[in-house]
Design brief:
Layout (H helix, E strand, L loop, with lengths): L2 E5 L4 H13 L3 E5 L12 H6 L7 E4 L2 E4 L1 H11 L14 H35 L6 H21 L13 H10 L9 H4 L2 H11 L2 H7 L3
Parallel strand pairs: 1-2
Antiparallel strand pairs: 1-3, 3-4
Length: about 220
């Protein structure tokens, strides 16, 4: 039975989930949620029942409901550990698991925290909300992200991916917002750092991401 993904394919968090499903070769079905009509808010009590914060995505795996994109991705990676691309360490390898969880925290606290606000300010506000960009705030977010990517440059000088020598969920977690940095006027944060750029080129060249970003 296909996993039902409630969301929209071009939303950042939904893209994370779909890419992991593609990497693992898992059958899925996207159930569109029309954000413009408020279906993710109180107009649809069923959605609020399944995602009490009124956000997307959430999944229905044969009656098992799960929300929050990173939690969903972990669930898929663990449930289908024996097929597709290995995206998490073995649960018995505590040292590898520790490094994985460390990298997850780094992505959330040092990349996503600033990239998301920068993209929201420069791209989402004018495009989806008809609001002007707060340029002062955007400049602050860009500066903070730049500082973090300086550390990424050092880390990636000794390893190919964020958790070591193999691609993992953590690399996938970076893609949706990282891919929008160009639209936010900050693409050079990646391209001007050689090790970050090499890592980004490897991750964004994956067939799962290319097909997803092209609408497949």
């Amino acid at each position: 039975m296909a996993i039902k993904v409630y969301g929209i394919p071009y939303s950042t968090c939904t893209m994370r989930v779909i890419m992991v499903l593609k990497e693992k070769g898992v059958e899925y079905e996207v159930i569109p949620i029309d954000l413009s009509k408020g279906q993710h808010k109180s107009k649809t009590p069923e959605h609020m029942k399944n995602q009490p914060f009124g956000q997307i995505p959430f999944i229905d795996d044969d009656g098992y409901i799960l929300y929050e994109s990173r939690a969903i991705c972990r669930y898929i990676a663990l449930k289908y550990a024996d097929q597709g691309t290995p995206l998490m360490p073995l649960q018995t390898d505590l040292k590898a698991l520790g490094l994985f969880e460390q990298a997850v925290s780094v992505e959330m606290c040092h990349f996503d925290a600033w990239a998301r606000m920068l993209v929201s300010e420069k791209v989402f506000k004018p495009k989806f909300h008809g609001q002007p960009t707060d340029e002062e705030a955007a400049a602050k977010y860009k500066l903070e992200l730049s500082k973090r990517l300086d550390v990424y440059e050092k880390l990636l000088s000794t390893q190919a991916y964020t958790t070591g020598d193999s691609v993992s969920l953590v690399d996938i977690f970076h893609l949706p917002y990282g891919a929008l940095l160009g639209q936010a006027g900050a693409g050079e944060l990646i391209t001007e750092r050689p090790h970050v750029k090499a890592w980004w080129d490897r991750v964004s060249a994956r067939e799962s991401w290319k097909s997803l970003s092209q609408g497949a």
